[in-house]
UniProtKB/TrEMBL annotation:
Keywords assigned: Iron, Iron-sulfur, Metal-binding
GO terms of molecular function: iron-sulfur cluster binding; metal ion binding
Descriptive protein name: (4Fe-4S)-binding protein
Residues of the 4Fe-4S ferredoxin-type domain: 59-84, 85-114
InterPro entries per the UniProt record, alphabetical: 4Fe4S_Fe-S-bd (IPR017896), 4Fe4S_Fe_S_CS (IPR017900), CobQ/CobB/MinD/ParA_Nub-bd_dom (IPR002586), P-loop_NTPase (IPR027417)
Amino acid sequence: MKEIVIISGKGGTGKTTIAGSFAVLTDKVVVADCDVDAPDLHLLLHPELIETSEFAGSKSAFINKSRCVECGLCKGNCKFNAISEEFSVDTHSCEGCGVCALVCPVQAVEMKEKVSGYSYISKIENGFMSHALLNPGEENSGKLVTFVRDKAKEIAMKENIGKIIIDGAPGISCPVISSVTGTNAGVVVTEPTVSGVHDLKRILELMEHFRVKPFVLINKFDINKDKAKEIEEFCVEKGVEVVGKIPFDPVVTTAMVNGEPVVKFIPQSEVSKEIKRIWKKVSENF
């Protein structure tokens, strides 16, 4: 079983567009959408839901009114103003730190797990998809990403599927680390801008730390050819392969508006041809 992650170091570079295109170019695949805070790969792959699971990733305080003596210690020590005058807990404000349970003299406060989001298993045209959605304001997205990846591996083993394509979370934070660790290779989608270069350097450092083989893909390279050249020179210096350069083309936006990966919507476009060439090159090397 091989896992390849598509990451970007920042949002908006075209990561999901590439992941969706790679997915439909594979004969049989399991896709994992690890952007659990704002997933959107389903908009391109139109998965058919077959399984839903609750995800309990955090805890919240609950006050047992029959035991509470209303001493006020919990409310006085809560730094998040989550406890009302009536000694009830606002679960949206509660950060689950447990201080209220610690200071309660009669053990009236209990820390209980709460549903932080939902994970899904779905069928797509050429395989399966593991994806999830964290509830607004909830934390532990890194833990949910791991859950999504574990489910993808279970499906791949059960269905004897050899490739897992991971649409990683944007940035370099905890959910990105959970998206990257243990994968066979990563395609970093970057763009020829000042912020694009900066974030490319950060994500490559992260991949080096976790010993994941990187490939770099420059999206919309022709909007700033000088910056694109700077990225190529940097990659040569670091010994990182640039597997392709995709030109800017409004056809990509048109495909997204129509809810299709560009390689499926207009397969003969220059963008589609380049993505196919890139996928062939990447898939042969991991």
